[in-house]
Every structure is written in structure tokens, then in C-alpha cells.
Amino acid sequence: MSVIEKTPAEFWPGVPVVPVMSAGATGGSCLCTAGIAGIPSYGHPGLASDVGDGRAHGKDERVAVKSFFEGGEYLYRLVKGRSGAQ
């Protein structure tokens, strides 16, 4: 969890990391259907949006250009940190 707490602070200082449960299916569902037990799976979108501007799966679904590029760099650093790469 240290990387998952450290990396967001680099991009969004002061914003807390809060675990939530998603009602939708993710790639982590493959771990359950394959009969693999005991492997925790975490989803992490890495996209920032304004509070109350939820447009996921709507007719006008979109993401801000800044959030798109920032999210790519954020996820790159997160995966790099979790893998132990320097």
C-alpha cells in the first residue's frame, strides 16, 4: 500500500486514498473465475475528475485532456513503483 499512497500524493497533494468497492466487473474477476483463491486484486483508474462530474458510460462520456495525460503518467509511475523498477 505504500506505493499506492505515495504516488497519488505526487500528483494530487492532500487528496486521501480511500478504498471503495466497485459494483462492476474488472479484470480481477478472472482471478475468481479461474479458481485462484487468496490473491487480492485492486483496481485503480488513475483519472482525476471534478466532483459531481461523473460521465462514465453516459451519452456524453469524456475525460479531460489534462486528466488523460496525467493519468497515463500516474499509472506508469504506479506500476513502476509496484514492480520495484527504478
Task: Walk me through the structure.
- With 86 residues, the protein is mainly α.
- The protein has three helices and no strands.
- It has helices spanning 2-11, 29-33, 65-83.
- Helix 1 (2-11) packs antiparallel against helix 3 (65-83).
Strand composition percent: under 5%
The sequence of SSEs as H and E is HHH
Instruction: Give the termini distance in whole angstroms.
Output: 18 Å
Number of strands: 0
Mean pLDDT: 78
Query: Could you give a short account of the major beta sheet?
Result: none
Radius of gyration, in angstroms, nearest whole number: 15 Å
Please tally the helical runs, counting DSSP H or I stretches of 4 or more residues. Answer: 3
Low-confidence stretches: none
Question: Which class of secondary structure composition applies to the elements?
Answer: mainly alpha
Helical residue percent band: 25-40%
Oligomer: single chain
Overall outline: globular
